[in-house]
Amino acid sequence: MTATLYDKVFDLHVVRDLGDGRYQLFVGLHLIHEATSPQAFAMLRERSMGVAFPELTVATADHVIPTDDISRPFADPLGEAMLTRLERNTEDFGLRFLSPARGEHGIVHVLGPELGMTQPGMTIVCGDSHTSTHGAFGALAFGIGTSQVRDVLATQTVVLNRLKVRRIRIEGRLAPGVTAKDVILHIINRLGPKGGVGYAYEFAGPVVEALSMEERMTLCNMAVEAGARCGYVNPDDTTIDYLRGRPHAPTGAEWDRALRWWRSIASDPDARFDDDVVLDGSAIPPMVTWGINLGQSIPVDGTVPTPADAAPDEAAALTEALEYMRLEPGRPLLGTPVDVAFLGSCTNGRESDFVAVAEVLQRTGLRVAAGVRALAVPGSARVRERLIRLGVRDVLERAGIEFRHAGCSMCLAMNTDKLVGEEICASSSNRNFKGRQGSPTGRTLIMSPLSVAAAAVRGYVADPREVFDIENSASVPPTS
User: Fold this and answer.
1) Cis omega (within 30 of 0) on the bond before 66?
2) Domain ranges for the chain
3) In this structure, which of 107, 153, 155, 406 has its CB flanked by the most CB atoms within 10 Å?
4) Going along 172-314, which residue ranges are E strands?
């Protein structure tokens, strides 16, 4: 028989077939943070239960961490209370906690890969929808709810339905200035934000094979925004090179055994998929969302759609989005003023994201436009340290971008970094829902880090290829 990576890894972790398409799976790595774990620990205490495999759970704080000043106590009493509770829970139940006080903290989906905890062939869960990020390594990684967090703590297992598998092959090569963020926005635009419901997405093809691990993480991070339960990339030399020497990666003879195992779990050449989608990577432009879901996007130089031209079942949603965003249909998005530019999040808070922005800013000498508040928030304390050593912080600050401490920051409204009033934000994060960034009337335009930088220096939505003369520059670094 031949099989996909999804089926191989799924079958190897089945503890019990529960019938009706439901399976109890063993969990190889459980990641927790302060936002979705308190109730789970409370339920354990109510039942006088412990954690079944404490060595397989790792905790960090990311959602509520302030990024301007991380000294304790936090200025936000709710954030301070949630971090205190996480510290108590991890101590009481004997779990590893990546502490801000020791400079270990960061966004959970940045920490797992950079420490080498995330590895091919694993099952990984977290009480966070963007756990799909870890699928970039050839893992099956799922977001779970709080009651499931409790179940994993108590049993190291989770109950899941078997998914169908859709392979998305991206042929050709990306044009200069087009990034992995643009690729996933294009996929969501083509297939819809609910198009992946009931599926796992396998990302494949020449474009995906050419991506770095950090770019693949961006792709898989937003698979869930396409409606898929998870997304993954088959492990290859790029995966192995990234993991080699990481703190939790195997060593010696175990490394050699791991390589053989990792390569064996890739989808077989003649594996059958439930659906196959082929896209032309060379035709993908820089993308920007204009609306209030991620399917509402256009090429950066495109025009905002008109409800009259939409299908009847889409017209009402288009009208609602246009009214909320206060945009005029049929007009270009280029030139739309922005008040805030945000670089960061579990989607685009890794080293390569900031390096790419710093390189175009340094090459062009451009600075943030007057009246724009620009933030750069690394995804982990380790990423922050590396950016400082590389001189990236200095370049960003000279350009007028405020370089912050690590955290989720303005991706969501659980900390002090929020939009105010009707501000418009050019954001490298992953969601543009109403109120997502903290203001019920704030507006979010999702785009790549290069596009965020272009908007920051122009003061309005702009094409990064034109702003930074990317097509004519000698060397443009990859960015996720």
Assistant:
1) no
2) 5-160, 164-283, 287-467
3) 107
4) 199-204, 230-232, 275-280, 287-289, 297-299
Fold classification of 287-467 is Aconitase; domain 3 (3.30.499)
Phi, psi dihedrals of residue 99, rounded to the nearest 5°: -90, 140
Q: Is 90 helix (H, G, I), strand (E, B) or coil?
A: helix
Mean pLDDT, rounded, for 453-462: 98
Beta strands in 320-399 (DSSP E): 340-343, 373-376
What distance in Å separates the CA atoms of residue 9 and residue 334, rounded to the nearest whole number?
44
Report the residue count for the chain.
480
Helices H / strands E in the chain, number of each: 17, 19
Q: Is the dihedral of CA 366, 370, 372, 378 positive or negative?
A: positive
Cα 13 from chain centroid (whole Å): 25
What pLDDT digit, counting tens, does each position of 274-284 carry?
999 999 999 99
State mean pLDDT over 148-175: 98
Task: Flag whether the pTM goes above 0.85.
Answer: yes
Question: Maximum CA pair distance of the chain?
Answer: 65
Q: How far apart are CA 32 and CA 151, in angstroms?
A: 13
Q: At CA 55, angle to CA 52 and CA 56, rounded to 5?
A: 80
- Angle of CA points 82, 88, 91, to nearest 5°: 140
